[in-house]
Amino acid sequence: MKINVWNTILQLSKERGVEPSIIISAIEESLRVASANYFSHNEKITVFFRPEKGELRVYAVKRVVEKTRDLAAEISLDEAKKVRPSAALGEKIEIELPADTLGRISAQAAKQVIFQKVRDAEQEKVYVEFAPRVGEIVTGTVRRFENGNIILEVNKTEALFMAREMLPNEEFDRGDTVRALIIQVQKTTKGPQIFVSRTHPKFLAKLLELEIPEIANGNIEIKDLVRQPGERAKVAVLSNERDIDPVGACIGVKGNRILNVSKELQGEKIDVIAWSAHPPSYAKAALSPARIDKVLLLNKTENAMQAIVPRDQLSLAIGKKGINVKLASRLVGWKIEIKQV
Fold this sequence. Notes:
By secondary structure, the chain is an alpha/beta fold. The chain contains twelve helices and 15 strands.
């Protein structure tokens, strides 16, 4: 059967960004599915499709027998002669799908399966593009709001920005530009779902990497990082170069580097401290900006310690709603009890 779909295939390939071979495979599969109504005995269906030459055949091969036992693979001599008058016992003949039937199913069932296959290919392309980008900061545009969540457009692809992944009191309008971290890419029945966040600790880590060259090139390493999104964060850093002050480099001249990151996070306060393998020294630094007199180990088994602070440093050490000491404890991995002298 002569058909003229090659130009359509090429056009569809260009519009959807899908290889022509994928569309051709979709057409072949759709024809197999649709022709099963004609070949109703579970025959093995062969599709010969050469769209660039306009050639299409759909047929099943059967052996000519005197009495059929397997209708999927055999045909009686009488029936075979209706297909080919010269048919003889023992021969294999091709049972063609009639041209009128082929034309009808090509226009109906094929169309549905083709677009489904193209859609599947598009979705796989999205997954392949974004799955390796988990942990990367992307910039998206607010397109619409759904149940308190935001749908962002990132590189012509939708990403889900859930309410719990937003900073406290953040508000966005349609058309706003948003920077966020890709935290997950899931395959779902509706296609790939991309999840982004501005509250994840890695979002802060990536912002620091973008702002501070010494972190980006590996001269400074982020050892630990904890956050109370939108309120306070603590970042422990270590220098891999003797002549680089890790804390000073991260803060920048007049605090400009850390201030730029804080602005992106709606004013979230960021304490940068020097990492230490010595728990008391690490805890002392972690309780910054409070000045700590000394730190005592109370119970090594339970990872409990006590920080001794002057009276005028007590509220600073504890922090608003206890946030400073809580974050310090999470950073160090020890329970920290604050005691005033």
